[in-house]
């Protein structure tokens, strides 16, 4: 069976410039993300600093522009001073967030070195759980001040003459959550966040700050939390954060694939709340969104209950992703690109081993999960201006959502390189979706490639067969006289690349 959809894409219907940081990711001191993930000194591919070059190679394929670090829940109990200076003298500490032991072999400077190797900037989080203004302003001074002060000279004495010049900083992590070390009310957090923000910017006025929004849209304090926090911090921060994780817990595929509509609603609500505070303050400034944790996360929940407390780098949050997860990740990317005018930063949580597109074996290979592909396609081909398209698609209802379009899509125009890229998910579980798109404003553009990720088994993974869920370029998209036509296989992720 075939269902029909129609669309018009016009280069003048601009949503906004895509900030490349929307393709960011996240490395937390959690599980095997750092140790045995990015860092494994005994691994055959380890470089002179002990970083796995096979992992660096895969991360480079993703063209990750920004990596959030060092947490996550971990940051709310972290003393950054434990992770700098001679490695042999660094303390072992209990990490109360994940009930593990942190050896501090990797800290701020080593991570900055790793980020340089993958050509990424770092989105550094400060501890507003057990610490506050003083530790945060000292960290900015340590990282960003050139020299001639206690903390900058300490950095130099640690072998880092040049400042790290970290631009983007998070004011704590998920401070609305009772699981957070130092959990606060919105008023309490708003007060500490604004005072910390002021001190950090007094050290380095060029930095940008992200205030903590809600841990997800279903928190009881959402969206009052955002309103209160922004009421306190509006003039001193630049972004408000959003976090969300989804899972197919009821094994209801139609409902699962519709969950990106929850993300749409979340983004819309946070924009509205931020703009309400803008109106209330009669401010000319606009607060943008940092979706600094997003992904699928549920496969590993039971296994994590069996982790031995206080072990070092145990295999935590090691979700093995299947094909249906890759489809939802594709739709989540589409949701953020559709609001590229306001979502300026986003971090796929996380990058290696922990709910990650890249997995490693100790002493062995690094491999790509199913979700690696939509993330890579968006990051590599989704640079430029996001475009509105008028879409007419048949729809379905699911347990939690009504009017779910089978066709989920967004387009990106790169004016400089004269390319147009269409990202699309066909959510239909049995039918091919046949698309006719009016692309007359892209005169002279031809299809360069139609990439497809499809699989007859929605539960297929790459765990035992690394090429089980991999894309091919045999899609049938073509353009004739300003009309693009393409067939999207049932349950597929599609990337149509056009160029002049
Ligand atoms: O990414 C895993 C965890 O999810 C993070 O540490 C926390 O911020 C969130 O709850």
Describe the protein's architecture and organization.
- It holds the Pfam family Alpha-L-AF_C.
- This is non-reducing end alpha-L-arabinofuranosidase.
- Belongs to the glycosyl hydrolase 51 family.
- InterPro entries: Alpha-L-AF_C, ASD1_cat, GH, Glyco_hydro_b.
- The protein folds into two domains: 2-12 and 386-499, Immunoglobulin-like (Sandwich), CATH 2.60.40.1180; 20-381, Glycosidases (TIM Barrel), CATH 3.20.20.
- The chain contains eleven helices and 23 strands.
- It has helices at residues 53-62, 108-117, 133-144, 150-157, 186-203, 224-233, 253-257, 260-280, 301-304, 323-338, 372-381; strands at 2-17, 24-26, 66-69, 93-95, 100-102, 121-126, 168-171, 208-211, 239-246, 288-296, 343-349, 358-360, 366-368, 385-392, 395-396, 404-405, 407-414, 419-426, 432-438, 446-454, 478-480, 483-488, 492-499.
- The chain has a nine-stranded mixed sheet with strand order 20-23-18-17-14-1-19-22-21, with helices on one face. An eight-stranded parallel beta barrel has the order 2-3-6-7-8-9-10-11, surrounded by six helices. A two-stranded antiparallel ribbon has the order 4-5.
- The model has no long low-confidence stretch (mean pLDDT 98).
- The chain binds alpha-L-arabinofuranose (AHR).
- Alpha-L-arabinofuranose is lined by residues 28, 71-73, 173-174, 293, 349-350.
């Amino acid at each position: 069976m075939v269902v029909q959809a129609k669309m018009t894409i016009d280069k003048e219907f601009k949503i906004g410039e895509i900030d490349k940081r929307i393709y960011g990711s996240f490395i937390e001191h959690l599980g095997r993300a750092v140790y045995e993930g990015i860092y494994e000194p005994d691994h055959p591919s380890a470089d002179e600093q002990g970083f796995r070059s096979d992992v660096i190679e895969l991360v480079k394929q993703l063209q990750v522009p920004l990596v959030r670090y060092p947490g996550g829940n971990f940051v709310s109990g972290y003393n950054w001073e434990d992770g700098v200076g001679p490695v042999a003298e660094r303390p072992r500490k209990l990490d109360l967030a994940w009930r593990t032991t942190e050896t501090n072999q990797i800290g701020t400077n080593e991570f900055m070195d790793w980020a340089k190797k993958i050509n990424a900037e770092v989105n550094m989080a400060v501890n507003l759980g057990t610490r506050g203004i003083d530790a945060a302003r000292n960290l900015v001074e340590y990282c960003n001040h050139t020299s001639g002060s206690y903390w900058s000279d300490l950095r130099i004495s640690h072998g880092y003459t040049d400042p790290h010049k970290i631009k983007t900083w998070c004011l704590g992590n998920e401070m609305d959550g009772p699981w957070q070390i130092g959990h606060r009310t919105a008023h309490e957090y708003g007060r500490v966040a604004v005072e910390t923000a002021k001190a950090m910017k007094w050290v380095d006025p060029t930095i940008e700050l992200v205030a903590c929004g809600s841990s997800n849209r279903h928190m009881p304090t959402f969206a009052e939390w955002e309103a209160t926090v922004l009421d306190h911090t509006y003039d001193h921060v630049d972004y408000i954060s959003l976090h969300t994780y989804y899972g197919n817990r009821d094994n209801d595929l139609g409902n699962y694939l519709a969950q990106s509509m929850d993300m749409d609603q979340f983004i819309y609500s946070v924009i509205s709340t931020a703009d309400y505070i803008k109106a209330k303050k009669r401010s000319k400034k606009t607060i943008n969104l940092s979706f600094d944790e997003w992904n699928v996360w549920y496969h590993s929940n039971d296994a994590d209950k069996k982790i031995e407390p206080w072990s070092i780098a145990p295999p935590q949050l090691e979700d093995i992703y299947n094909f249906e997860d890759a489809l939802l990740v594709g739709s989540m990317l589409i949701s953020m690109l559709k609001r590229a005018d306001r979502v300026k930063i986003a971090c796929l949580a996380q990058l290696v081993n922990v709910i990650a597109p890249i997995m490693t074996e100790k002493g062995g290979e690094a491999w790509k999960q199913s979700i690696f592909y939509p993330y890579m396609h968006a990051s590599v081909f989704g640079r430029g201006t996001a475009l509105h398209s008028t879409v007419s698609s048949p729809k379905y209802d699911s347990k939690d959502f009504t009017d779910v379009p089978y066709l989920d899509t967004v387009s990106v125009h790169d004016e400089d390189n004269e390319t147009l890229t269409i990202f699309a998910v066909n959510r239909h579980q049995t039918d091919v979706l046949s698309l006719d798109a009016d692309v007359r404003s892209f005169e002279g553009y031809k299809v360069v490639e139609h990439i497809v990720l499809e699989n007859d088994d929605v539960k297929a993974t790459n765990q035992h067969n690394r090429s089980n869920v991999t894309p091919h370029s045999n899609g049938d998209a073509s353009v004739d006289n300003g009309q693009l036509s393409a067939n999207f296989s049932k349950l597929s992720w599609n990337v149509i690349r056009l160029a002049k």
